[in-house]
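User: If you would, consider this record:
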Amino acid sequence: MEERRVDLRIPNPERSKEGKRTTGILHRFNAADPLSVEYQELMKELFTGGFWEKSKVVAPFYANLAADIHIGKNVVIMPYCKCMSAGNIYIEDNVRIALNTSILTNNHDFYERDVLTVKDVRICKNAWNGAGVTILPGVTIGENAIVGAASVATKDVAPNTVVAGNPAKVIRELDGERFKEE
């Protein structure tokens, strides 16, 4: 993924407006009854980059710029997911994201701390991220891949593999032919 740089010392009214919009909606979303119509409406209002029916985000949830998060069909995101979304986060169809996952698209420049280095993150179709996973900027989690609990994905995860550890390493190959198409 291509790296972009964001200088936080330079005012960006659009970014500021989206940050305030995200914060306001998240405050209401995280306090709403998850079985209410309001909760469902707030989910759709929050993710303006795309949010398909049959997808579910369970509060509490955190993001700094929700418009940069794109959620496919039949996605489940469990509580305490944190998205540092200065870059785009693409979550494709049928993805499962377990409790306490962190998805990071940005970091600070090593020498200029007011500059963010930004790379998009993609979680491909039918991937599963276990509890406590951290996904670092620029990483793609391949189709059908599994990232084991408490793992740190520091580089791309190939399709049809299981990775675990810090940094995450391949521990098993999966038979891609066994996955059902929906």
About this structure: The chain has a mean pLDDT of 95. Residues 4-175 form a domain with the UDP N-Acetylglucosamine Acyltransferase; domain 1 fold (CATH 2.160.10.10).
